[in-house]
Design brief:
The complex is a heterodimer of chains A (148) and B (102).
Chain A: H1 2-58, E1 60-63, E2 66-72, H2 77-87, E3 93-99, E4 108-111, E5 123-129, E6 141-147
Antiparallel strand pairs in A: 1-2, 3-4, 3-6, 5-6
Chain B: H1 2-47, E1 57-59, E2 70-78, E3 87-89, E4 92-101
The chains are: A alpha+beta (148), B alpha+beta (102).
């Protein structure tokens, strides 16, 4: 009887220890992936803030001194490229594009020298809905990508 | 046995709390992006109401309780826009915009 109780205690203890070891291993793995997550969150904040500045100011149409938020002026596209080069310095990369669907206007795209292709480990994307003079069908979409 | 069981229960409760807290962090990031998109839709519809919202985004009644994340913004304007669907009171127009991912 005493032997059986001892065996049950051992089994219960081994079960708990096994679970704790497994959970600790999982948490350690999370610590390593957390570093990647933190970097992604940083890139995501950057992409989100750049998209906000782009639609509210950098690309925004001006009429009589009044800024029309979210009304993108394609003539100001190069201004965004200059700003993004300063805000997203190497080794980070960036891409910015406007897709118009259906293609009633020519799509616009700028990127850093390295761009943000699928080989990048971390890519954050911010999408904004904008208006361009002459657009038909769907509202154009401004996509900002920041990667590392 | 009681001590082992108590330790096991403490472990379960702590694990559950950690997982819930992590889930809440992810939710807040999505909310900010959706809220900005809701404001975008409100603005661009003023410029050209005839255009359609892109397919990755749903608005208004298409955002029911089955969606994981829904954002809504309430906007006020003073007498610069006339629209029958808006509530007009003392020159102030109020509109709600609700969006979610499609």
């Amino acid at each position: 009887m005493r032997g059986q109780l001892f065996t049950a205690d051992i089994l219960a203890s081994v079960l708990v220890v096994t679970i704790i070891v497994a959970f600790t291993t999982w948490e350690l793995e999370q610590v390593y992936t957390r570093a990647s997550d933190v970097e992604y969150e940083k890139l995501n904040s950057l992409a989100s803030d750049i998209s906000q500045m782009a639609v509210k100011n950098i690309l925004a149409n001006r009429s009589g001194g009044v800024i029309r938020a979210n009304w993108v002026e394609t003539a100001r596209w190069n201004l965004l490229k200059g700003n993004m080069s300063e805000m997203v310095p190497p080794p980070y990369g960036y891409e910015a594009s406007i897709t118009v669907s259906p293609a009633s206007l020519a799509p616009q795209k700028i990127s850093s020298s390295t761009g943000c292709d699928a080989t990048k480990a971390n890519i954050a994307v911010a999408r904004r809905i904008v208006y361009i003079t002459g657009a038909t069908g769907y509202f154009p979409v401004l996509t900002i990508k920041v990667c590392a | 046995m009681d001590a082992v069981f108590a330790l096991y229960m403490s472990f379960l409760i702590m694990s559950t709390l950690i997982i819930i807290l992590e889930a809440n962090t992810n939710y807040s990031d999505d909310s900010l992006a959706l809220t900005r998109l809701a404001k975008d839709v409100y603005l661009v519809k003023k410029y050209n109401p005839a255009l359609t919202v892109p397919t990755f985004l749903k608005t208004d009644i298409l955002c029911d309780n089955s969606k994981d994340s829904i954002a809504s913004v309430q906007s006020f304007a003073y007498g610069d826009i006339q629209n029958d669907t808006w509530n007009t009171k003392s020159g102030v127009s109020t509109t709600f915009m609700k969006v979610c991912y499609g």
